[in-house]
Amino acid sequence: MFGKRTDGAPHRHEPMSGLWFINNAMPKDDSLSAHVASMANEWSIRKRRPVRRKNIAPLLKQLETDLAIDLNVDGAFIEMAEYGPWTMVFVDRTPLVIELLDEEEQRCVFLTLRGFLEHSEALKWVEVDHGAIPFLMNGADCMVAGVHGAESSVQSGDLVWIRDMTHKRPLALGWAVDDASTLVENTKGKGIKTVHWVGDELWDME
Q1: What sign does the dihedral 23-29-33-37 (CA atoms) show?
Q2: pLDDT tens per residue, range 70-94
Q3: Backbone phi, then psi, for 92, in 5-degree steps?
Q4: Which fold would CATH assign to domain 14-197?
């Protein structure tokens, strides 16, 4: 992918070293550890109960439309639950769908990372290089220096899923700070505010 130098000429994003991400992506204090501990203590599952598919059909339809996927949950055992401020949908006991509010208090329905494992064709993806992976899996926000591609419909404020550029495997979910082209072209600053990543409480949930 190409961006622009200060003189307007294109340049190629190069994979970032681990040292760059240590200096720029990771918190300078224990805030991340405190946040993870807070999630473990406060973001517990509540009110988990079976639901009929027809009762959540509008939610699932919205998700299918937004991500251009077919969930195909006919005949599945479906449950709903509260997870902190989020609403979750379990399909055959696996958490596959979340509903949360964006910064403007608008409802947003999205797949979990386990959901994206089953729907790798879904829209709203952002790709990162290998250097970003260990930090994303630690819960760090995604810096634009590691971004090498983004699906064209991504807009600022969208909930997006982050995947590795080689194997296309989901790594994290977060709120996009800029649109697709800006995420790819920029080389400095934060690109995505992470909310869910491989190895967190939600990933390990059953």
Answers
A1: negative
A2: 998 989 999 999 999 999 999 999 9
A3: 50, 45
A4: Sulfate adenylyltransferase (3.10.400)
End-to-end CA distance of the chain: 38
Q: What is the full DSSP assignment across 105-121?
A: S-EEEEE-HHHHHH-TT
Cα–Cα dist 126/42, whole Å: 29
Tell me the C-alpha distance between 150 and 184, whole Å.
7
Q: Where are the domains of the chain?
A: 14-197
Q: Following DSSP, what letter does each residue of 54-120 receive, concatenated?
A: GGGHHHHHHHHHHHT-----TT--EEEEEETTEEEEEETTEEEEEEEE-TTS-EEEEE-HHHHHH-T
pTM of the full predicted structure? 0.78
